[in-house]
Amino acid sequence: MAQTAQSLNHARPPEAGHSVKRHTGLMDWITTVDHKKIAILYLWAGGLFFGIGGLEAILIRIQLIKPMNTFLDAQTFNELITMHGTTMIFLGVMPVIFALMNAVIPLQIGARDVAFPFLNALGFWTFLFGGLLLNLSWIMGGAPDAGWTSYTPLSTSTYSATHGVDFYTIGLQIAGLGTLIGGINFLATIITMRAPGMSYMRMPMFAWTTFITSAIILFAFPAITVGLVLLTFDRILGANFFEVGAGGNPVLWQHIFWIFGHPEVYILILPAFGIISEVIPTFARKRLFGYSSMVFATILIAFLGFMVWAHHMFTTGLGPVANALFSVSTMLIAVPTGIKIFNWLFTMWGGQVRFTTPNLFAVGFIPTFTMGGVTGVMLASAPADFQFHDTYFVVAHFHYVIVGGLVLGLFAGLHYWWPKMFGRMLDEGLGKWTFWTFIIGFHMTFFVQHFLGLMGMQRRVFTYLPNQQFDLLNLISTIGAGLMGVGMLFFLTNIFLTSRKPADAADDPWEDGRTLEWTIPSPPPEYNFKQTPLVRGIDAFWKEKTAGHKGMTPSEPVGSIHMPSATILPFLMSVGIFIAGLGFMFSRDTFSSDALSFLFNNYIVTGLGLLITFGSMLMRSLFDDHGWHIEPEELEGR
Amino acid sequence: MVTEQHPQEGSVKHRHRQEGPQRHIVVFIFSVVLTLIAFAAVAAGGVNASFAVILLLVMAVLQVFLQMGFWMHLKDKGHLMPIIFMLGGFFIAGTCIVMALYWVWWD
Amino acid sequence: MTTAHAEAVKGTLPHEPEKATLEGRNKVLAFWLFLGGEAVLFGTLFATFLALRNQTNDGPSANELFHLPLVAAATFLLLVSSLTSVFAIQAMHRNRPALLRSWLLVTVVLGAAFLGLEIYEFSEYVRHEKFGMTTSAFSSAFYTLVGFHGAHVAFGILWISVLIGQLVRKGLTVVTAPKIYVSAMYWHFIDVVWVFIFTVVYLLGKVG
């Protein structure tokens, strides 16, 4: 199927004209369906939320800098930790992952776009409006304060009476819808849009991890959607899923949350594995060691990731059988992960390693992530977990895997693919400053937290008493957090200075590019490949280079290229869902103005929002998008 | 089984076998019978509860297999990815069911 | 494959018009993926229902509540509608748009009848049995699971109705065919979910 995929784009319905309405400025960004522009949208949106989450982290650390601090009150602290976790996981790192997937995956598999450009835009806008809805809580009566896991009964209306948790449930449902759409899109893209010759076992590792990640998204996000719906119904419609008094069960929430939540952490880390597997071979000038075992390990991690959720719940009292079962399955994950670690080390072994900024981040990733993995195995032991549970040891563990793993991976990927996305190389000097300040700050912040946890410091508590030996370690931790902030500032400065330089990056700016994205201009033209390339092996571009060829052999003659039309409908659909969510959230409130009460209490606002969404869907269905064509003369003219 | 030959045009290489309605009517009758067995077992009463659970689930799974195989064409060629992802979905759904049955309530 | 497209342009449809274009094939594949996700969605709802099935909070229990004849009628309606949607796809593969439209119409009517029965059932429970969303954990789980399915049926009815309209306006083409095929997949999947609902919720509820 992949072979015929591209050529079919050429056949065009007779009525499709060549004229195309091109938007400029803001309209261009709102209506775009080009995966490269959507990647940039994801990057800016992710960067915005990442910044918000980072500021929240700094505030948390300032509060904890000394015992009995009064910088924040307990309520604000609870809101900050809740929003820090939720924002970072769902709105900070996920969109940056999607940014890299969007920017790179179609290029790596030799496609002109994703399978569903329209859905791609829809996924982005629903994610963005979900994230905005969640963050509106800060200015609309208080943010959610029940922790990022939102455990019941704390998060039920009895104990959390403001709208905070409603913003959490409804905002995450909307953002989650966007993520699910994105996941399905990437699955379909990788299954059907690969260039001729690119079999599954010739795909770059980042394409593989994107594929598996998307599959996990597909199976994990519906579970949390249901969980959030149940919590919403409990809070707004008075249902009893988690109300013990009416027969409900709070443990059910924990199960549903973690059946999603544990796969979610693999959704986060697998793309980082993919990035590292691209960066290390490039800068070692060697092919990835143990490619097939990498693929196998990725699939195994994805499968096991669904089988371990209850290790977050050892202390709920599941009993020895369940605890033993989930202990063993959790420890099993160390095996495929270990395979990956060794494969990266063996890739570098005997290679001509260049320590460019992306490679520094990739090499820094390996020991840092391994430390997080090792504490994971410690936590997997149920009896030990009874001691570690809800202490800073857990906080240290998951920051080692998420920041020391994923964020370092994202930094590696961003520095590596920045020239491909923007046509400009980030400054190497500033990049190295970013790396060193960030990684030193990171270890300062979180390494000491292992010991804080072992000494008994509880997580999620807004302050602590003096003279428990917590003081110095907390001070070190806060200074480290500041240093990570400095690292981020270096990165932002680098982006700003780079954006003022001319866009002159070469097609293959690292000179040792191995995969298809380095065969086309930086940034690529909107059709990506003038001629779809013919793939003759793994690391397709490297293979041609070693055979003495300058570029890829095309698999088709130059012909007219069919492009999808820009459209505002994805944006409108997302606005509609946003309005409907807000309307539903306030449907039981009394307002000072009668007119407002009437509009909200009779579900008129909700109905209006749904009308916009379904109306836009109807428009999309009724009016066919014939797209437009780029003719061969135009291709040659550039 | 009636098979109509689709008229060949141009250079279409593979031949299409046009399925008749009979096969689907057979699946329909099977579905009705399986449903009837399930309803009858419950309506008649007096069936041992644990036996009823097994019987009803077997009837349901058989019916779902038939419908997904024939009506949704999963038995046809070129459905490897759909089968993989449907099995994946059902597997995770089954995991959730196990969770609900064994790990939500305990003494 | 280019042949298929040439035929489409000439005006004669290929045998399986839903798979004639890359867009069509992508659509069918992605819809399968989506159904995999839907399986997890309903799996989680079933899990919730099973966990809370006995938590009646002194309200009506499953055994007191359910009337099998009503459920049997609803089951039969949905099963027949699944068959008629198979016939619709067969009509599409034979390139007989008028017959296709009729079968789709029958499907929609049967689906609407099913939905009517479900609304009647819910309203009976609320009015006569004092069994509402807030009665018990069991009632919340029941309404959410069966209601989610009902909402899927309602969406399917609207969707297929819109497609019938498009068939009238645009005819059967390589653009409309994948939409119809995918809506039929959706409809079958709704029936598959219902098989589990009548088994797990109603019949096993009666068994206790």
TrEMBL record, chain A:
Family (UniProt): Belongs to the heme-copper respiratory oxidase family.
All copies of domain Cytochrome oxidase subunit I profile, residue ranges: 23-536
Gene expressing this chain: ctaD
NCBIfam families registered for this protein in UniProt: CtaD_CoxA
Name this polypeptide is given: Cytochrome c oxidase subunit 1
Catalytic activity: 4 Fe(II)-[cytochrome c] + O2 + 8 H(+)(in) = 4 Fe(III)-[cytochrome c] + 2 H2O + 4 H(+)(out)
Source species: Paenibacillus auburnensis
Enzymatic class: translocase
Entry EC number(s): 7.1.1.9
Listed SUPFAM superfamilies: Cytochrome c oxidase subunit I-like
Xref: Pfam families: COX1 (PF00115)
GO-annotated molecular function: oxidoreductase activity
Pathway(s): Energy metabolism; oxidative phosphorylation
Gene3D superfamilies in UniProt: 1.10.287.70, Cytochrome c oxidase-like, subunit I domain (1.20.210.10)
Coiled-coil residue windows: none
Membrane-spanning parts: 39-60, 80-105, 117-140, 167-193, 205-231, 251-276, 288-309, 321-346, 358-380, 392-418, 430-452, 472-492, 568-586, 598-619
Task performed by this protein: Cytochrome c oxidase is the component of the respiratory chain that catalyzes the reduction of oxygen to water. Subunits 1-3 form the functional core of the enzyme complex. CO I is the catalytic subunit of the enzyme. Electrons originating in cytochrome c are transferred via the copper A center of subunit 2 and heme A of subunit 1 to the bimetallic center formed by heme A3 and copper B.
TrEMBL record, chain B:
Topology versus the membrane: Multi-pass membrane protein
Keywords: Cell membrane, Membrane, Oxidoreductase, Transmembrane, Transmembrane helix
EC number: 1.9.3.1
InterPro entries, A to Z: Cyt_c_oxidase_su4_prok (IPR005171), Cytochrome_c_oxidase_bac_sub4 (IPR050968)
Superkingdom per UniProt: Bacteria
Molecular function GO labels: oxidoreductase activity
UniProt main location, coarse: membrane
Localization terms from the record: Cell membrane
One Pfam family matching this protein: COX4_pro
TM spans (from-to): 25-45, 51-71, 83-105
PANTHER family documented for this protein: CYTOCHROME BO(3) UBIQUINOL OXIDASE SUBUNIT 4 (PTHR36835)
Family that this chain belongs to: Belongs to the cytochrome c oxidase bacterial subunit 4 family.
Full protein name: Cytochrome c oxidase subunit 4B
Gene for this chain: caaD
TrEMBL record, chain C:
PROSITE patterns for this protein: COX3
Membrane-protein topology: Multi-pass membrane protein
Listed GO MF terms: oxidoreductase activity
Cellular compartments annotated: Cell membrane
SUPFAM superfamilies on file: Cytochrome c oxidase subunit III-like
Pfam families the record matches: COX3 (PF00510)
EC number per UniProt: 1.9.3.1
Domain of life: Bacteria
Enzyme class of the recorded protein, top EC level: oxidoreductase
Family: Belongs to the cytochrome c oxidase subunit 3 family.
Record protein name field: Cytochrome c oxidase subunit 3
Source organism of the structure: Paenibacillus auburnensis
Source organism phylogeny: Bacteria, Bacillati, Bacillota, Bacilli, Bacillales
Gene it is expressed from: ctaE
